[in-house]
Amino acid sequence: MAELDSFKPVYKRVLLKLSGEAFGHAGKSSGISIDETLTIARQIKRIAVNKVEMAVVVGGGNILRGAQFSAGGEVIPEATAHYMGMLATVLNGMALQQALESLSIETRLMSAIPISPVAEPYIQRRALRHLEKGRVVILAGGTGNPFVTTDSAAALRARELNAEILLKATRVDGVFSDDPESNPHAVLYDKLTYERVLRDKLRVMDQQAIQSCSEGRVPILVFNFRQEGNIERAVAGQALGTLVKESF
Fold first, then answer.
1. What is the pLDDT of residues 200-243, one digit of tens each?
2. CATH number of 12-245
3. Residue 75: which residues within 8 A CB-CB, separation 6 or more?
4. How far, in whole angstroms, is CA 115 from its chain's centroid?
5. Residue 185: how many other CB atoms lie within 10 Å
């Protein structure tokens, strides 16, 4: 990655949203891959050592998605299924924490669901202090409430923690006019406004998350995390993926 040898970040504080699939085995739908987790951790390390304050919101879809149990009806109520999904994010958070600390990066794992033996409770002021001290803050448990996506949790935390940008890591290159995995003719957008995303119901994040970022004027960059070095490129302000903000 010669182009990153002179890595110069353009942001001081960022929030990275990692879906559960970032922790899974490539091409498989479940489980945690230590290799994939370490790949993410190495990129985060290269950013952290350049004095960028980073918070990471983790999903849990590689382990369990609350929505998959919604058909359980009376056996597993929908609210319970969502809590199960939130607990899955804690497992990914623990894996990322250990991967980063194996690389000598100081971290704090914070959970919106009280689970004190393995994670600190999420408290905004405490999270801000950790960031100021140069620790990577890993945020698990969503918002601690059912019926709220981790996208919405990421938007909320980005605003609470005064992040300059929300980096949404996905398995595709950005935001397309249609599903690029089923439509090879789908067009990749390089820039979008919040208004356009909401109006056209484009698949960036859920509508609540987009609305929250719009209200807080938090830019969103959607990019492919599978390409090595893309997280660093995003923090360096290089052109990639799709940038969503108020206007251009």
1. 999 889 999 999 999 999 999 999 998 889 999 999 999 999 99
2. 3.40.1160.10
3. none
4. 21
5. 8
Of 193, 114, 122, the closest CA to residue 161 belongs to 122
Q: Is 217 left (phi over 0), alpha (psi -120 to 50) or beta?
A: left
The DSSP-derived string for 57-105 is: EE--TTT--GGGGGGGTTSS-HHHHHHHHHHHHHHHHHHHHHHHHHTT-
Output phi, psi for 67, to 5 deg: -65, -25
Residue 225 C-alpha from the chain's centroid: 10
Cβ proximity of 135 and 190 under 8 Å: no
Question: Which tens digit of pLDDT belongs to each residue from 140-178?
Answer: 999 999 999 999 999 999 999 999 999 999 988 999 998
Return d(Cα 148, Cα 108) in angstroms, integer. 23
Q: Which of 6, 4, 10 is nearest to 167 (CA)?
A: 10
CA distances, 51 to each of 30, 105, 114, 237 (Å): 34, 12, 30, 15
10 Å Cβ neighbour count for 177?
A: 14
- The residues that bridge with 170 in the sheet, in sequence order, are 224
Residue 76 exposure: Cα atoms within 13 Å on the Cβ side: 14
Q: How many residues does the chain have?
A: 248
